[in-house]
Amino acid sequence: MTSSTFQDTVNEFVLSKDQVQKIIDGLTEELVEGLSTKDPKNITQQPSYITRLPTGQETGLYLAIDMGGTNLRTAAVHLLGDGQVGVTMEKHEITHDLKTGTGEAMFDWIADCTAQLLKSVALDLGTTADLQMGVTFSFALHQTAINRGTVLAMGKGFDLSDVMGKDLKDLLEGGFARKNLPVSVSAIINDTVGTLVSHAYVSPSTKIGVILATGTNAAYIERAADVSKYNGPACDQMILNTEWDAMGKASYLPQTKYDKEIDAVSLVPGFQEFEKMVSGLYMGELVRLSLVDLIERNAIFEFLGGKVPESLKPRLAFKTLFMSTIESENNPEHTAVDHVFKSSFGIEGLTADDRRRVFELVHAVGKRSATMTAAACAALLHKANGASVNLDDANEITTIGIDGSVFEKYPHFSHEMMEALTEILGKDRASRIRLELARDGGCIGAALVAMVSHSGGAV
């Protein structure tokens, strides 16, 4: 009974070919729907107002900030041409109090962080005209111009007052004005758009940008004629911020009871259901909920007698970092499992079977995330095929630039994504896909877009 109960739980995270295809078909349907819908509740497929990728020859000094789910990065970016950049960057943790406070307090803090950067790079504000800034904003915006967009929704633990529905340029420049900083916002992009643009600066075959960290999202290049929701100047193509994190419906997502529990207790149930199945914020919680259930059913850690330790009860107590530690160990005894549970939870006495089972569970949850991310990338590749991507040209390489701690640091994640893409696309097509790590895309991408926007060109 114990063994079958455990295996049944692990098997819930193992996806069949049919389940993967349903994810691809479902996401593709939502990608198409998002191109035309005027429903303000549908935040997917947001036009970025960026109509071409950089050439790699752009030059100049521009400020940039990258506001994500965990940190704010401020940067002075020197574009040097020939795909080269010089970056002075500072990182600041966004505290819980900031995330759940007032909008004014948040944007004053951003201005203070920017002032600290300017001091670090020794810019003399007294002799400096308005400094141009590109902004990467990792949350849903309704973009109305290259440097304007109203805030639609903020997940990732944010609950700011007086921000929803406001224009981000006005919010930021209000903070700069209150702190007497001569900074103008000349471009606003999403972090995943920044990843696409910045990686294309150094790798011109890049057609898709993906973020896979605390949250997840993607951007790609679409035919402008297919983007009926776009009302801007005429163009041939448009980079779209898919907001695929907010996609996903119960009709096609292979949700376990643990996925449903995570959604039910989240700040906004029914929102970002795809993200809650694959991103770094939730992977560890899926393992914790599974372990709690298995302990209560006496299917693991039997020495506890079905009693869950207090240390395992808090939400998000089992971090995705612990999964990475466990999977990174090349040791059949899985001694890293012992270390994690002893040092972080005060749990000792695990048997060899316990350690093996924890490893199997962790591996299954991690592999499901990689497979689902690959399925989402396949949906984008299919949607863009014949436009910015040509899957059938044996001489064309398509690069997917991926930024984020899960892709960069989680063991074997890129390999398992590539295995899943090979299964989905076939060996020939998959051999022409490259998955590449794209670091610091938010700041560099924002600076690139700010440069072209300020110079009067259309990116």
UniProtKB/TrEMBL annotation:
Entry's Gene Ontology BP terms: glucose metabolic process; glycolytic process; intracellular glucose homeostasis
Stated name of the protein: Phosphotransferase
Lineage, highest ranks first: Eukaryota, Fungi, Fungi incertae sedis, Mucoromycota, Mortierellomycotina
Its EC number(s): 2.7.1.-
A UniProt-annotated Pfam family: Hexokinase_1
Annotated ranges, domain Hexokinase N-terminal: 7-201
Organism name: Entomortierella parvispora
Transmembrane segments: none
Keywords: ATP-binding, Glycolysis, Kinase, Nucleotide-binding, Transferase
Presence of the UniProt keyword Nucleotide-binding in the record: yes
Residue ranges of domain Hexokinase C-terminal in the record: 207-452
